[in-house]
Specification:
By secondary structure, this protein is an alpha/beta fold. The protein is built from 14 helices and 14 strands.
Length: about 325
């Protein structure tokens, strides 16, 4: 049921993100949104469409094309008591603000002895699959998950798109939200949250007994499709959505391996030094004697993401790749 007792209607990931922003702006005068083209244009991916007209240019601010400058301004605003939401168009462009994120946002609380919290939220689009070529398509969230002092979120469902922003704004530390570009048009009827969204724990998206498929973000729909297809061959796969990439939910990872005794980690980032490598290492460290087979990883090819559609598809993890990895683990 929706607000006022009405039935929930079909919506999209993009619209749920927009509603989360609208609610944040309406509920707290300290919240404002800024970034490239978030105002009059409505956001590069249409997420903030209409918010300028509703809240005005003081609350929805278009910025110059300088990621370092406007992320730095967001840090300053957060330290001064505001609750800024900074949008960076794509994760590739966030590298222009890496100094601000790593050397300032992530460190100020520690270096000030707890005196300077930085309650900043940074949203950015990540991932490939849309023929946007190598400068707009990579999955670098694992890089940010390497950094102490920040929280890294990867909402993959309509419900998380809608309800992760509020607790992110309440966090005293900087929070980075990675929105996979292939999910914006994902549609459905969102389930109402039964409790407040928990940013500390992974979610079991499908229960199973034979193998654990561990993933996050834009790979979740492919992994769920693989799990459905595997049932035709008698393989019952459990699907774990990590949701929060820093800190990782070690308990959930260990619990799923203890149930199925096999694990396949799916990560759209490159295999070398990836988040999939970190998850695999933690399974080896904490759950080695639960395993009946080596951990399998399904990652992107170690190349810049191609523009040509067939080459891009070949470079990315696909449902068939997940199925093949499961058979290696189970057969």
């Amino acid at each position: 049921m929706g607000a006022g007792g009405t039935e929930a209607s079909e919506t999209t990931y993009r619209e749920e993100m927009r509603e989360a922003l609208r609610e944040a702006l309406a509920s707290d005068d300290r919240v404002f949104l800024m970034g490239e083209d978030v105002g009059r244009y409505g956001g590069c991916f249409g997420v903030s469409l209409g918010l300028l007209e509703e809240f005005g240019p003081e609350r929805v601010r278009d910025t110059p094309l300088s990621e370092s400058a406007f992320v730095g301004a967001g840090i300053g605003a957060a330290v001064s008591g505001m609750r800024p939401i900074v949008e960076i168009m794509t994760v590739n462009f966030s590298l222009l603000a890496l100094d601000q994120i790593l050397n300032n946002a992530a460190t100020l609380l520690h270096m000030s002895g707890g005196q300077l919290p930085v309650p900043l939220v940074i949203r950015m689009t990540t991932g490939a699959g849309r023929q946007l070529a190598a400068q707009h398509s990579h999955s670098l969230e694992g890089w940010y998950a390497h950094i102490p002092g920040i929280r890294v979120l990867a909402p993959a469902t309509l419900e998380d798109a809608r309800h992760m922003l509020a607790p992110a704004l309440a966090d005293p530390d900087p929070v980075l939200i990675f929105e996979h570009g292939s999910l914006y048009n994902a549609s459905g009827v969102p389930a109402p949250p039964t409790t407040a969204v928990d940013l500390d724990h992974a979610a079991v998206r499908r229960s199973g007994t034979d193998v654990s498929l561990i993933t996050y973000g834009g790979s979740l729909p492919k992994v769920l499709a693989a799990a459905d297809e595997l049932t035709t061959g008698g393989i019952d796969a459990e699907v774990i959505d990590l949701r929060t990439l820093r800190p990782l939910d070690d308990a959930a990872i260990g619990a799923t391996v203890a149930r199925t005794h096999r694990a396949v980690v799916i990560d759209e980032a490159w295999r070398t030094g990836s988040l999939a490598a970190e998850v695999s290492a933690r399974i080896a460290e904490r759950s080695f004697y639960e395993l009946d087979a080596p951990v399998e990883r399904v990652c992107s090819a170690e190349v810049p993401i191609p523009y040509a559609r067939r080459l891009e598809e070949a470079a990315l993890p696909q449902t068939a790749d997940v199925i093949a990895a499961v058979h290696r683990a189970v057969d």
